[in-house]
Amino acid sequence: MNINSASPETVLETRGLHKSFGALRVTQDVSFRLPQGARYALIGPNGAGKSTLINLLTGVLAPSSGTVLLNGSDVTRLRPEERVRRGLARTFQINTLFPELSPLEAATLAICQRRGLCINPFRALSGCDDAIDEAQALLADFDFGDDAGRPTHELPYGRQRLLEIVLALAAKPKVLLLDEPAAGVPQQESAEIFTAIEALPSDVAVLFIEHDMDVVFRFAQRITVLVAGRILCEGTPDEIANHPEVREVYLGDGENV
Amino acid sequence: MVALAPRIPAPSVVARHLFLRRSRWRWEEIAFWLIAAASFFLFPGHHVLITQALISGLFVVSLDLLLGYSGIASMGHAAFFGIGAYTAGILAQQGWGDPLLGLIGGAIVAGAFGALCSLLVARLHGAALLTVTLGIGLLCYELANKWSSLTGGDDGLQGMIVQPVLGLFAFDIDGNVGFIYAFVVIFIFYLLARRLVNSPFGLALTGIRENIRRVPALGISVRFQLMMAFTISAAVAGVAGALLAETTQYVALEVLSFDRSISVLIMLVLGGIGNLVGGMVGAMVFIVARDQLAAVNPVYWNFWLGLILCVVVMSGAGGIVGFLRRLGDRIGNGR
User: Fold this and answer.
1) Do B206 and A110 touch (CB under 8 A)?
2) Contacts of B66 in chain A (CB under 8 A)
3) Which of A192, B163, B218, B279 would bridge with B61, disulfide CB 3.0–4.6 Å?
4) For the range B251-254, what are the long-range contacts, defined as Cβ-Cβ under 8 Å and sequence gap of 24 or more?
5) Can you give the pTM of this predicted structure?
6) What is the ipTM, given to two decimal places?
C-alpha cells in the first residue's frame, strides 16, 4: 500500500478505511484513489458494503479507523455539510428530494448556500437574482423547461433522478458520488440520464456506485470491486470483465455465493 | 410589468418572477390586516379583547416559523412567551417602565433562553422533541411558581408601572393606546417574519421540513439553521409576551401554562399552518369565539372548541385560511 502523500491530481483518497458495527466488520482496509476528472466505478454484490462506504466517504458515518482525504487534506472528522462545502457532492440511490419545492427553488437553495446567503434571515430571496439566474441556467442545461417551476413531487420519476444530479452539481463539486443514478428509471427515460452523465463537467471526478453494468461499462475508465467489505480487485473494465474471481462472485458465472 | 411585455420573456425573467410571486401579498393577508385595522373603529368597546387576539396572533406566528416552516414542533412554547412577559413585567416593576425597553428586554431574555434550549432541541426529532419541549414548558412554569419573590408566584406579578409609549401616549383604561401600540409592533414583526420566510434562510428551513436528509448534502448545517430558527421563534414569542404584560399591566402565572402552549397549537391548526397569516386568523377566531361562547355558557367552551376543530380539520387541509383560498380560487375561476 502506498502511504506516501497523495499525488497532486488525486482529489479523493481513502487510506486503510475500517468500519465495524460491533463484531460485524462491514468495511475492511479500503484504500483507493480518485484522480481529478476521473470516471471510476465501485461495484459489488448486495451486502458488499457499498452503502457503508458511501456513508464513510460523505461523513454520515465515522470510520473505526483509517482516513478520508479530500484534495489532500484529512476530512475524516468533518461533518457531511462541511465536506460538501469542500467539494464533495453526492446523489442518492433513492430519491431524496424536496417534494413541495420546485426544482428551481431547490437548486436556488443549493446555490444560495454555496454563496453563503443562507445564514442571514432577513435577506430577501427576490433580491438574490444572481443565484436564481444560475439555478435557472443549470436547470436549462438539463432541459427542465417548464418543469423547473412545478413542485418536485409532480415530476416524472426520470426527471426526479435528473434533479438528484442537478442538486449535486449546484454545489460546484470537485468530486461527485453518483449512487446508482439510473436506479428504477424506465428504459425510455434512461437515455436522458445517460446524456446527463455524459455531459458532466470533465474536470469533476465522478465515482459511480453501481449495480447496473450498462452504466459501469459505458462510463467507467476503471472499476473497483468490493466484496464483503474488502476491495477484491481494481482495473479497467476489460480486466474486470475477465477477472475469474469477479466472474465467480459477482457477474454470476459459476456458482453464486 | 414584465408579464405584460408583448414578446416572450427570457427564462431568467420567468425564474425571477416565480420567486416574486412566491413572496407577494395574498388577498387573505391584506384582508386580515385591513379588518384588524378597521376593527379599531368598528368595535370600540372591544379594544382589549382584539389587542389580546393580535398578541396571541404574534405568538402563533412565532410557532408557525418552527412548525409550519421548519417542521419542528414545540409543546412548551409558552415558556418563551411567559419569559418575555415576566421580563417586561419585572423591568416595569423595578422602574424601567419604558414599553420599548420592555419589548427589547423580553426579546433578548426569551431569545437567549431559546438559544440555550436550541442546543438541545436542534438535535432532536419526533417524540423526543415533543417530550423535551414539553419538559421545558413545565420546568419554567414550576420555576416561576416557586420563585415567588421574583414573579409573585400564584398571585401574579403586581406593581408594574408602564410608562407612556415614546414618552407621549399613556396607556388608557379603554385600551386605545394599547391597541394601536400592539397593532404597530405586531405588524412590524409580521413583516419581519414574512421577510424571514421569503429569504434563502427561510428556504433552507423549508428544505429541512421537506427533507431533512437532503439538506446536509447541499452543504447546509441542519443544526445551525434549526438553532437560529428556534432562537428567533423564542425571541418573537418573548415580544408577544412582553406586549401582553405591558398592555394589561399585569403578569399572571398562566402566561407559562401548559394550557397556553396547547392553545397556541390549536390556534395555528385552526387558522392554517405554514402561511403566517393563518396564525393571526386562527388566534383572532379562537379568542373572539371563546369570548362570545363563554358569555353564552362558560362550561361549554371546550365542547364548542372541539366541534370547531373537528369541522375545520374535516373540511380539508390548511385550516380557515386554506378554506378561504380554495373559496377564492373557485370564485376566481367562476368568472
Assistant:
1) no
2) none
3) B279
4) B251/B85, B251/B86, B251/B89, B251/B151, B251/B152, B251/B156, B251/B157, B251/B160, B252/B156, B252/B157, B253/B141, B253/B144, B253/B145, B253/B151, B253/B152, B253/B153, B253/B154, B253/B156
5) 0.90
6) 0.88
